[in-house]
Amino acid sequence: MIRGGLVLALLAAPSVANACATCMDPREGSRTLLWVTIFLSLLPLGLLASIGSFLWWRARTSLAVVAPSPDLPPLEIR
Fold first, then answer.
1. What's the pLDDT score for residue 9?
2. 4 lies in a domain?
3. Can you give the pLDDT at residue 43?
4. Residue 16: CB partners within 8 Å, gap ≥ 6?
5. How far apart are CA 34 and CA 21, in angstroms?
6. What average pLDDT does this structure show over 10-17?
7. pLDDT tens-digit series, residues 22-76
């Protein structure tokens, strides 16, 4: 019931609903927009770096598990 009243109030006064964090204070708007741009630019790079480091770690640990035992005789390849 309260949610419906809130939606109805926002529909009655659309100028209130058009506000955003960067639109409220014009002096801070450019700085906020700059930080959002930096964050959104670095986010995909961070995700790719974390996925790459995870795959690198998995490859390194899988090589450690598959390594032959020092007690086995050396293999002769002909």
1. 75
2. no
3. 96
4. 10
5. 13
6. 64
7. 555 666 667 777 888 899 999 999 999 999 999 999 888 876 655 566 777 766 7
Compute φ and ψ for 28, nearest 5 degrees: -95, -10
Q: Is residue 67 part of a domain?
A: no
What whole-number distance in Å separates Cα of residue 2 and Cα of residue 21?
24
- Is residue 17 within 8 A of residue 24, CB to CB? The reply is no
Contact 42, 31 (CB under 8 A): no
| Number of separate domains in the chain | 1
The residue written with tokens 């450019």 in the block is: 30
Q: Which of 62, 17, 68 is nearest to 8 (CA)?
A: 17
**Domain ranges, residue 34:** 26-58
Q: Is the Cβ–Cβ distance between 29 and 18 less than 8 Å?
A: no
